[in-house]
Known about the structure:
By secondary structure, this protein is an all-alpha fold. The protein is built from 3 helices and no strands.
Amino acid sequence: xxxxxxxxxxxxxxxxxxxxxxxxxxxxxxxxxxxxxxxxxxxxxxxxxxxxxxxxxxxxxxxxxxx
Length: 67
């Protein structure tokens, strides 16, 4: 169970990082911070970052959790 949880967290991190980096090619978060423009790619970039963060936390729980 722990290995599956850690693997799931790692896969979730990879997907989130890929989404975040793909969306960040358009400089969305910089335009959002400086000018307040929010579009689809800004939301995808923020969502990718949150998914990557959740993946890291799930992977750490999978590594540390003792059954």
